[in-house]
Design a protein that fits this description.
Among the domains are: 518-625, Phosphorylase Kinase, domain 1, CATH 3.30.200; 628-637 and 666-853, Transferase(Phosphotransferase), domain 1 (Orthogonal Bundle), CATH 1.10.510. The protein is built from 19 helices and 41 strands. It has a 16-stranded mixed β-sheet, with no helix packed on it. Strands 34-38-39-37-36-35 form a six-stranded antiparallel β-sheet, sandwiched between helices. Strands 7-9-11-13 form a four-stranded parallel β-sheet, with no helix packed on it. A hairpin with a 5-residue loop joins β40 and β41 (714-716). Residues 427, 430-431, 434 line the site of one 2-acetamido-2-deoxy-beta-D-glucopyranose. GO terms for molecular function: ATP binding; protein serine/threonine kinase activity; transmembrane receptor protein tyrosine kinase activity. Keywords: Glycoprotein, Kinase, Leucine-rich repeat, Membrane, Receptor, Repeat, Signal, Transferase, Transmembrane, Transmembrane helix. Its EC number is 2.7.10.1, 2.7.11.1.
C-alpha cells in the first residue's frame, strides 16, 4: 500500500506539473482537475515528462481507444471536501470509481450522470453526510455499491430498486433510518447485503426477502428493527445471517436454514423453547460453524443433542432464560473452539469428558450453579476460561493452574474452590480469585504456601477419536514398515586386522571412561543373532574383526549404557554396536528374550535393533548404522557422526559419501526441519508408550539418542535397554542424563511414561531454542538450565525471545511459540500434569508447517 501511494504520488506530481499540457475536456484533463480541486496533499516533484499518456497513470485504466478512462482508483489519497462538478462525473465511459478512504464530504450533483456506465462505486470510509438522493436509481448498470462508513442519513431511497443488476450493497456504518426500504427487496440479484450499524427501524413485511434468491450474505445487525423475522426460506444460498442487536421477537426455529454457516441472532428478544429447533423440519445444519443465540429470551432446555451441529466452532447460548438443567452433551462437538454457556441456568457437575476438548480456546461457564470439581482442561490452545460465580468445589486442578500464566484471561471468582498454588503472582491476578475458600492463605504470602500433594484420580486425558486415530496410524507403521536399508551392501575395500582373528579371551577393552571385559574363551563359539538374516553364521570373532578388537578408533560414542562402536560385518553391512556394560543383573536367557522382543519392534522413527550377541557378562546390541549422526551434534554444531579424530572418509567410506545425502548444519536451521524432528520423535515415543505391549518407557530420551537416517528422518535409539541391562533403582544409572531428567527421578518408583514426556519436552526446547539443556548461555535470566530459562520466558509470554534466531525467519513465529508452550506442558514438575505422548503428537501436528510456510 505504501508503495502504491508513493507510486501514485509520483504520478500525481507528474500530473500536476503537466496540468498545463492536458487538453481541456480530455479525460486526462478532467482527472487532473479533480485531483487539484480535491487538494491532494502530495509532494510536487520537479518531474517533467509531458509525453506520458494519462492512461499509464497509476490507478487509471483506459479502454482500447486510450482516450476514455474506464477505471479510476484513488483510495486513500487524502482527497478532501466536496467532489467538484464537471470533473470525474464527465468521464463518459467510467465503469469503476474507487474513492474510498479519503475525506470526501459531499457528492457532486452531476455524479448521477455516470449512470449509463458505472458498475462499481466505492465511497467507503469517507465523511459524506446527508441523505442519499433518489438519483441513485440512475445507476442502472451498478453491480457493486459500497457507501459504508460515512454519515449518510435519512431513508434508504426506494429508487434503489432500479439497480436491478446490483450484487453487492454495503450501507453499513451510516445513520440510515426509517423502515427497511422495499426497494432493496427488488434488487433480485443481490448476493451481499450489509445494512449493519444504522438506525433502521420498523418491521419487515411478511415476504420481504422472498425474491432475494441469490443472497448469500445478509447483515442488518445493530439496528432497531422490530417484530418477527420474515420468512427466509426463499434464500436458497444464504450462508451468513447476522441480525444481532435488534429488537426482533418470535421463534428462531424458522431461521435455521440448512445452507447457513454463520448465524448470529444475539441480543434480540427471540423467545420460545430452544429445544424445538431440534424437532423442526430443518435439521441438517451440518455446515453451521458459528451459532450465537446469546442475550435473548429463549427458554426450556438446551439442545438435547448438540451432536447435530458437528461442525460448530463457535457456540454462544449465554444469557437466556433457560430452565434448570444439567450440562449439555457436548461430546460430538469436536471442532469447538469457543463455548459460552454463561447464565444458562446450568446445575450439577461439569462432565469429565469436557476436559477432552483439546481445541477449545475460549470457555465461559460463568454465572451458573455448577457443582463438583473443576474440569482439568488441558488444551494448550485455551486462552480464556471463566468459571466465576458457580458452586464449584475442591481444588483447582494443578494441570490448569500450570496453564494460567500462559493464558490471556481466567476467572475462578465466587466459587467454593480451595485455592492452593505457589507460582502465580497473585496480586496481579487477584481479581480472578475473588471470594474463594482460602484454606491456603493466598492473600498472605503466596511464596510461603506449601501445596498439598495432589491426589489426582487417573485422568482420561485424550480424545477418544484422537486416540483411535493415533493407534490406527501407529498400527499401520507397525505392520507395514519394512526394513528399508539393511539390504544395502557396501563394498568394503580393506580391513586391516585380519591377523587378530585367532586371539582368544578373556578380552579386555579400554575406552575413555569404561573398561569392559568380554569373558569369552573361544570367540568363534559365541554366535551373533541377526534377526533378519538368521542363516548367516556370524560370531563374536566377526565382531572383533569388524571393530579391530573394539579399537578406540572405531568408537562412535560413549553411551550411558556403555561404549558404541561402528563396524562392518562380513556381509558388508555397516552396523553400530552397543556394548551394555552393566549386564550382569539379568540372566542370559532373560536378556536374550528381551533383545528378541526389541528386535521385533519396528517403527519408522526408531533405530532398528538388527541383532545381538551375548558375550560373557556383556550384551552387545547391534543396530542399523545411522549415517547422519545424532541430533545433539547437529544442533550444537559438532562434527556429525563419528566422534573420533581419525579420518575415515578418505578411503574406506567413499561409497557412503557418494550415496548418502550428508546433512549440513544449515539444513537443520529451518523451523520445518526442527518440527519434523520433533514430530518424528514424538511419534516414536507415542509408539513405545501406547503401541507396544508391555509398554516401553525409554528412560533416557535426549538429543544424543536421536539419530538421523539417510533420509534425514529422526530415529530414536536405545529404547528398552534398561531391561536388558537390568537397571535397579539404587543404580546410579537410573538417575537419567543431567539436563533431561525430570524432578521425580529421585524417586525411582515414579518411572512412568511421563518421565519420557519430560525429557521429550527438553528436547523440544532444545529444538526450538537451539540451546543445550545445561551449560549454555541463557540471556536475561539468572537461570542455569534451559528448562528454567524457557519456562520463565513462556510464562512471561516472551517465548518468542527464546526461539533460535537461526530459525526464526524460516517459518511461522506463532508455531514456534506454540511449540514452546507444548514443551512447557511437557516439563511440568508433576508427572500427572504432563500430557501423554499421543496428545503431544496431536498438538505438534496442529502446528505443522506446510510447504509454503518456508
Ligand atoms: C522541463 O521541460 C522544459 C521544456 O519542455 C525544459 O525547458 C526544462 O529544462 C525541463 N525541466 C527539467 C527539470 O527537466
Ligand atoms: C482527513 O482529515 C483529517 C483532518 O481534517 C486528517 O487527520 C485525516 O488524516 C484525513 N484522513 C485521510 C484518510 O486522509
Ligand atoms: C471499498 O474500499 C474499501 C477500502 O479500500 C475496501 O475495504 C472495500 O473492500 C471496498 N469495497 C468493495 C465492495 O470492494
Ligand atoms: C461493509 O462495510 C463495512 C465498513 O466499511 C465493512 O466492515 C464490512 O466488512 C463491509 N461488509 C461486507 C460484506 O463487505
Ligand atoms: C442468481 O444466480 C444465478 C447463477 O449464478 C443466475 O443465473 C441468476 O440470474 C441470478 N439471479 C437471480 C435473480 O436468480
Ligand atoms: C454480527 O454483527 C455484530 C454487530 O455488527 C458484530 O459485533 C458481530 O461480530 C457479528 N457477528 C458475526 C458472526 O460476524
Ligand atoms: C459470553 O457471553 C456473554 C453474553 O453475550 C458475554 O457478556 C461474555 O463476554 C461472553 N464471554 C466470553 C468469554 O466471550
Ligand atoms: C432457572 O430455572 C428455574 C427453573 O427451571 C427458573 O425458575 C429460573 O427462573 C431460571 N433462572 C434464570 C436466571 O433463568
Ligand atoms: C451452592 O451450594 C450450596 C450447598 O449445596 C448451596 O447452599 C448454595 O445455595 C449454592 N449456591 C448457589 C449460588 O447455587
Ligand atoms: C464448600 O466446599 C467444602 C469442601 O471443599 C464443603 O465442605 C462445604 O460444604 C462447601 N460449601 C458450600 C457452601 O457448598
Ligand atoms: C488486588 O490487589 C490490589 C493491590 O495489588 C488491590 O488494590 C485490589 O483491591 C485487590 N483486588 C481484590 C479484588 O482483592
Ligand atoms: C471475575 O468475575 C467476578 C464476578 O463476575 C468479577 O467481579 C471480576 O471482576 C472478574 N475478574 C476478572 C479478572 O475478570
Amino acid at each position: 500500500m505504501g508503495s502504491g501511494i508513493l507510486a501514485f504520488s509520483l504520478f500525481l506530481a507528474l500530473l500536476l506539473r503537466c496540468l498545463a499540457f492536458q487538453q481541456p475536456n480530455t479525460d486526462g484533463f478532467l482527472i487532473s482537475e479533480f485531483f487539484t480541486k480535491m487538494g491532494a496533499k502530495l509532494p510536487l516533484l520537479s518531474l517533467n515528462d509531458s509525453s506520458s499518456s494519462f492512461c499509464s497513470w497509476s490507478g487509471v485504466s483506459c479502454d482500447s481507444t486510450r482516450e476514455n478512462v474506464v477505471e479510476l482508483r484513488a483510495s486513500g489519497l487524502g482527497l478532501s471536501g466536496a467532489i467538484p462538478e464537471n470533473t470525474i462525473a464527465k468521464l463518459s465511459k467510467l465503469q469503476v470509481l474507487d474513492l474510498s478512504m479519503n475525506n470526501i464530504t459531499e457528492l457532486s450533483s452531476d455524479l448521477w450522470g455516470l449512470g449509463s456506465s458505472l458498475k462499481t462505486l466505492n465511497l467507503s470510509i469517507n465523511r459524506i453526510t446527508g441523505p442519499l438522493p433518489n438519483n441513485v436509481g440512475n445507476f442502472g448498470y451498478m453491480e457493486t455499491l459500497d457507501l459504508s462508513h460515512n454519515g449518510f442519513s435519512g431513508e434508504i431511497p426506494a429508487d434503489i430498486s432500479s439497480m436491478s443488476g446490483l450484487r453487492l450493497l454495503n450501507l453499513s456504518r451510516n445513520a440510515f433510518e426509517g423502515r427497511m426500504s422495499e426497494g432493496i427487496a427488488n434488487c433480485k440479484n443481490l448476493v451481499v447485503l450489509d445494512l449493519s450499524n444504522n438506525e433502521l427501524g420498523g418491521e419487515f413485511s411478511d415476504a420481504f426477502f422472498s425474491s432475494l434468491k441469490n443472497l448469500s450474505f445478509l447483515d442488518f445487525s445493530g439496528n432497531r428493527i422490530q417484530g418477527r423475522l420474515p420468512d427466509l426460506s426463499g434464500m436458497k444460498s444464504i450462508s451468513y445471517l447476522n441480525v444481532s442487536g435488534n429488537l426482533l421477537r418470535g421463534s428462531i426455529s424458522d431461521v435455521l436454514l440448512e445452507t447457513l454457516e454463520v448465524i448470529d441472532l444475539s441480543n434480540n428478544q427471540f423467545e420460545g423453547l430452544i429445544s424445538q429447533v431440534n424437532h423442526g423440519s430443518r435439521l441438517g445444519l451440518s455446515s453451521l460453524y458459528y451459532l450465537d443465540l446469546s442475550g435473548n429470551h429463549l427458554s426450556g432446555t438446551l439442545f438435547s443433542d448438540l451432536g447435530r451441529f458437528s461442525s460448530l466452532k463457535h457456540l454462544n447460548l449465554a444469557d437466556n432464560r433457560f430452565s434448570h438443567q444439567n450440562f449439555p452433551n457436548t461430546q460430538n462437538l469436536l471442532n469447538l473452539e469457543y463455548l459460552n454457556l454463561s447464565q444458562t441456568n446450568l446445575t450439577g457437575p461439569i462432565p469429565s469428558e469436557f476436559s477432552e476438548f483439546i481445541r477449545l480456546k475460549i470457555v465461559d461457564l460463568s454465572h451458573n450453579q455448577l457443582t463438583g470439581e473443576t474440569p482439568d482442561l488441558i488444551s494448550v490452545k485455551l486462552r480464556v476460561l471463566d468459571l466465576s460465580s458457580n458452586n464449584l468445589s475442591g481444588e483447582i486442578p494443578l494441570q490448569l493452574l500450570e496453564m494460567l500464566p500462559i493464558m490471556e484471561a481466567f476467572n475462578f471468582s465466587y466459587n467454593n474452590l480451595t485455592f492452593c498454588a505457589d507460582k502465580l503472582p497473585f496480586q496481579k491476578y487477584n481479581s480472578s480469585f475473588i471470594g474463594l475458600q482460602n484454606s491456603c492463605p493466598i492473600a498472605a504470602n503466596p511464596n510461603m504456601l506449601a501445596c498439598k500433594g495432589s491426589k489426582h484420580r487417573k485422568r482420561k486425558l485424550a480424545l477418544a477419536v484422537a486416540l483411535s486415530v493415533a493407534f490406527f496410524l501407529l498400527g499401520i507403521g507397525c505392520v507395514f514398515y519394512g526394513c528399508r536399508k539393511s539390504t544395502r551392501a557396501w563394498a568394503v575395500k580393506q580391513l586391516s586386522f585380519k591377523e587378530e582373528q585367532n586371539v582368544s579371551g578373556p578380552y579386555s577393552f579400554q575406552t575413555d571412561s569404561t573398561t569392559w571385559v568380554a569373558d569369552v574363551k573361544v570367540a568363534t563359539s559365541v554366535p551373533i543373532i541377526m534377526f533378519e538374516k538368521p542363516l548367516l553364521n556370524f560370531t563374536f570373532a566377526d565382531l572383533l574383526s569388524a571393530t579391530s578388537n573394539f579399537d578406540r578408533g572405531m568408537l562412535l560414542a560413549e553411551g550411558r549404557f556403555g561404549p558404541v562402536y561402528r563396524g562392518f560385518l562380513p556381509s558388508g553391512v555397516q552396523v553400530a554396536m552397543k556394548v551394555l556394560v552393566h549386564g550382569s543383573v539379568v540372566s542370559d536367557q532373560d536378556a536374550a528374550k528381551e533383545l528378541e522382543r526389541l528386535g521385533r519392534i519396528k517403527h519408522p522413527n526408531l533405530v532398528p535393533l538388527t541383532g545381538y550377541c551375548l558375550a560373557g557378562d556383556q550384551r552387545i546390541a547391534i543396530y542399523e548404522y545411522m549415517e547422519n549422526g545424532n541430533l545433539h551434534n547437529l544442533l550444537h554444531d559438532l562434527p556429525l557422526g563419528v566422534q573420533t579424530t581419525e579420518d575415515w572418509s578418505n578411503d574406506t567410506w567413499d561409497d557412503e559419501n557418494n550415496g548418502s545425502q550428508n546433512i549440513t548444519t544449515e539444513g537443520a536451521t529451518t523451523w520445518r526441519f526442527r518440527h519434523t524432528i520433533a514430530l518424528g520423535v514424538a511419534r516414536s515415543l507415542a509408539f513405545l508408550h501406547h503401541g507396544c505391549f508391555p509398554q516401553i518407557v525409554h528412560r533416557d530420551v535426549k538429543s544424543s539418542s536421536i539419530y538421523l537416517d539417510s533420509a534425514l528422518e529422526p530415529r530414536l535409539s536405545d529404547f528398552g535397554l534398561s531391561k536388558v541391562v537390568g537397571i535397579n533403582s539404587d543404580d546410579q544409572m537410573s538417575q537419567g542424563t543431567t539436563g533431561y531428567a525430570p524432578p521425580e527421578l529421585s524417586e525411582p518408583e515414579m518411572a512412568t511414561p511421563k518421565l519420557d514426556v519430560y525429557s521429550f519436552g527438553i528436547v523440544l526446547f532444545e529444538l526450538v531454542t537451539g540451546k543445550k539443556p545445561i551449560g549454555d548461555e541463557y540471556p536475561g535470566e539468572k537461570e542455569s538450565t534451559l528448562v528454567g530459562w524457557v519456562r520463565a520466558m513462556v510464562k512471561k509470554n516472551h517465548g518468542l525471545m527464546a526461539v533460535d534466531p537461526k530459525i526464526r525467519e524460516t517459518g511461522s513465529e506463532k508455531q514456534m511459540e506454540e511449540a514452546l508452550r507444548i514443551a512447557y506442558l511437557c516439563t511440568a514438575d508433576l508427572p500427572s500434569k504432563r500430557p501423554t505422548m499421543q496428545q503431544i503428537v496431536g498438538l505438534l501436528k496442529d502446528i505443522e508447517p506446510v510447504a509454503r510456510d518456508q
